[in-house]
């Protein structure tokens, strides 16, 4: 997912619906290496769309029964594809036009769906964490079939649409003091901005992150305890060594799925933590307004989009079967 505006801008680029300050002026973020930024966006766009489309094709082409983990991967891939189309592409278009040329309704809808995708990507990861928790810690309580997973995913998307609703009322098409038409947010007072951004940051990132950390702590703890309690030790009669026949009663497939999901969450943390830390510090005016800050902003604001681009590689690395399907689909695309 991508939120790539500087905090000095008020959503004029059509990409960031949560990081613009309510002021009728533009900062220096886009004036720093503009061509390099545009090229970076195009590369990210191609990688995000191409990689995640191949993931969808690879998962759908598999004839065998798909595990529940695949269901979550499909939802993450869909969210990443929509991120490329709604967030990254709208940013690219704005950099060519310099203004928001669509109607007021389109302005509100674009901002709304941008925020929906931010929430959805995070909450799908939370639902994946809860699913792994139930599979490992409470396997007997797990519902049969895919109903439980569908409920988690449905709740994740429902909360994303609900929490994004204020965006429909905050943003509108507006003519700025310099005569430009932009998709802008108006606030009664600048003092509303910092608490609003803090609340959004906690809802999108910090609260979900805490939930995932707690959930995976109990998951890893359960695996470790089962490994110690049920490992069957036998003495090798010839060497006198201890041989571990198995790690425990938890199926290997479930343990592997936990490692798989942990990699996805780790990539999410590495890509999103710098952005939200930078954003919070900047909103509370704890960062100096220097060229170094603008240069750092260029790198940091591209990291969320990078997360959507590297997810397909994580899927491929963690699942050999998916990787084989991935290669097969890629060869078909090249051939035809």
TrEMBL record:
GO BP annotation list: positive regulation of release of sequestered calcium ion into cytosol
Any single Gene Ontology cellular-component annotation: cytoplasm
Residues passing through the membrane, by range: 39-59, 71-92, 112-130, 151-172, 192-219, 257-278
Domain of life: Eukaryota
GO molecular-function terms, A-Z: neuropeptide receptor activity
Keywords associated with the record: G-protein coupled receptor, Membrane, Receptor, Transducer, Transmembrane, Transmembrane helix
Classification via PROSITE patterns: G_PROTEIN_RECEP_F1_1, G_PROTEIN_RECEP_F1_2
One family name in Pfam for this protein: 7tm_1
Domain (G-protein coupled receptors family 1 profile): residue spans on this chain: 51-315
UniProt keyword DNA damage, yes or no: no
InterPro entries given in the database record: GPCR_Rhodpsn, GPCR_Rhodpsn_7TM, NPS_rcpt
Compartments in which it is found: Membrane
UniProt record similarity statement: Belongs to the G-protein coupled receptor 1 family.
PANTHER family with a match to the protein in the record: NEUROPEPTIDE S RECEPTOR
Protein name in UniProt: Neuropeptide S receptor 1
Source taxonomy: Eukaryota, Metazoa, Chordata, Craniata, Vertebrata
């Amino acid at each position: 997912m991508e939120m790539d505006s500087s905090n000095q801008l008020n959503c004029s680029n059509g990409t960031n619906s949560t990081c613009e300050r309510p002021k009728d002026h533009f900062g220096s973020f886009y004036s720093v290496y503009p061509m390099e930024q545009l090229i970076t966006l195009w590369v990210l766009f191609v990688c995000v769309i191409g990689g995640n489309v191949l993931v969808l094709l690879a998962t759908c082409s598999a004839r065998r029964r798909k595990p529940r983990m695949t269901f979550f991967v499909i939802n993450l891939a869909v969210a990443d594809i929509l991120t490329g189309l709604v967030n990254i592409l709208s940013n690219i278009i704005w950099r060519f036009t310099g203004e928001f040329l669509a109607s007021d309704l389109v302005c509100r809808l674009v901002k709304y769906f941008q925020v929906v995708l931010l929430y959805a990507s995070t909450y799908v990861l939370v639902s994946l964490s809860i699913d792994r928790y139930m599979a490992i810690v409470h396997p007997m309580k797990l519902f049969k079939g895919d109903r439980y997973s569908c409920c988690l995913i449905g709740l994740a998307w429902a909360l994303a649409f609900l929490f994004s609703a204020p965006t429909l009322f905050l943003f509108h098409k507006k003519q700025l003091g310099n005569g430009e038409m932009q998709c802008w947010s108006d606030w009664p007072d600048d003092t509303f901005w910092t608490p609003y951004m803090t609340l959004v940051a906690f809802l999108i990132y910090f609260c979900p992150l805490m939930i995932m950390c707690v959930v995976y702590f109990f998951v890893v703890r359960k695996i470790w305890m089962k490994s110690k309690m049920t490992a069957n030790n036998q003495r090798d009669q010839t060497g006198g060594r201890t041989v571990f026949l198995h790690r425990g009663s938890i199926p290997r497939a479930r343990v592997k799925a936990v490692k798989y999901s942990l990699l996805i969450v780790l990539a999410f943390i590495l890509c999103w933590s710098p952005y939200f830390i930078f954003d919070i510090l900047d909103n509370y005016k704890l960062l100096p307004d220097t060229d170094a800050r603008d240069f750092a902003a260029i790198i940091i604001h591209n990291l969320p989009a990078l997360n959507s681009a590297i997810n397909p590689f994580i899927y491929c690395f963690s699942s050999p079967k998916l990787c084989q399907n991935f290669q097969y689909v890629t060869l078909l695309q090249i051939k035809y």
